[in-house]
Protein 1
Amino acid sequence: MNRFSPARTPATSTSSAASQAKPRTVVLVTGASSGIGRATAVHLADHGAQLVLTGRSTVTLEIVADRCRRRGADVTVVEADVRDMAAVEALVTAVVEQHSRLDVCVHAAALVAYGRFEDVPSDVFDRVVETDVLGTANVARAVLRTFRRQRTGNLIVLGSILGRIATPYMSAYVTSKAAIHALARTLSIENRDLPDVHVCLLMPGSVDTPVYRRAASYAGRVAKAPPPVISPDRVARAVGGLVERPRARTDLGPANKLMALGFTALPPMYDLLVTPLMRLVALGRPLVPHPGNVFEPTRAGDIDGETYVGSPPR
Ligand SMILES: NC(=O)c1ccc[n+]([C@@H]2O[C@H](COP(=O)([O-])OP(=O)(O)OC[C@H]3O[C@@H](n4cnc5c(N)ncnc54)[C@H](OP(=O)(O)O)[C@@H]3O)[C@@H](O)[C@H]2O)c1
């Protein structure tokens, strides 16, 4: 992949690129403290982007920011909860004030909850849907208003294969991803009048990130990334590709097409097999039910989500 546009002026504390001529690509990454957001931030840092990283915890975001700065990137950290429209608007306004524009937003912030629908407490279900669906709407609203003013910009939304199929024990997430896919498609259509404004939906299959360990769990077992699993770096490279060549819909994962085909073409067979398969490959050792990171940001320094999986029930 080519490097993104090289730097014009450093807008924040730690740049090594002040002498270069063209403006760097200004990228806002939500959910940058972990998993795909973190890998994307590091990948884009390697490719000369000017980064603004956001999530619910400055402490954890700064760990990622330091890693990006060591690779020569200009990085700003802004704490914001995507459920808070005012905070998201203020964040986007601050980016534009600081850098005079916003080129790309990679929206990776999300929550997950495991458990049969009726076992997941309603406040947990609601918080996941609020974060995943309304959080995406808030980010898209603020970012697209800016892109429309600029008449250019690229919103890259992390969807999922689970926005195209259904799976048991993940009702809040599956519901949310289906809604996000519908929203992304609508936004893509609505912005067809601006050829340089793009809405890209990236739909990975299973990715090896801490989301499984820090998800709320009422399934009585630790969640695991079901095989076949790809790395967050692989997803980050796909995001980098979309920064350079925007595309409305991108599938990413060796089993996505097969799963989508089984879901749509053979529903009775799919519905028969999906629950035992899910129990076999996606749920591990016993675990005391817990709300994970649903009501609190990733615990400081625990960028791998280890503190949530704790000890098995006695
Ligand atoms: N991992 C997979 O297998 C997989 C597969 C397909 C699609 N995806 C999608 O890829 C994206 C990233 O997932 P991931 O696996 O990288 O998850 P992750 O490691 O848990 O990262 C999620 C990020 O979202 C942030 N976040 C959570 N709630 C937030 C809120 N209310 N406001 C702002 N930030 C918030 C988290 O930080 P704080 O907790 O500190 O706020 C964290 O940085 C999600 O959209 C996910 O659905 C993942």
Protein 2
Amino acid sequence: MRRQDITRAKRTGSTVELGSSLRERLQTVSSICTNCDLCEKECAFLRDRGKPKEIADRYDPTRKEDQGMAFECSLCGLCTAVCPAGIDAA
Ligand code: SF4
Ligand code: SF4
């Protein structure tokens, strides 16, 4: 998930709407990621938060914990480098 996608999520009262690009990215990751765990082995953030598909499936923009999640990723790109599906989880 990209930081700018999270930033794009709009608050409207007590509801947080996902920007379409973030929603599309979550759906893409969820449909392509096979939970193979190659990226998780390389990344402390993913070991703590779960595999990209797990994160995408449970992401809830109304939860404070999820809103700050993107800022825990260092954007190092290692997950994409090892992913057989070429998923950019950052
Ligand atoms: S970019 Fe780096 S820190 Fe972020 S999820 Fe991928 S491997 Fe982990
Ligand atoms: S390496 Fe790719 S396919 Fe495997 S768990 Fe990570 S994101 Fe999913």
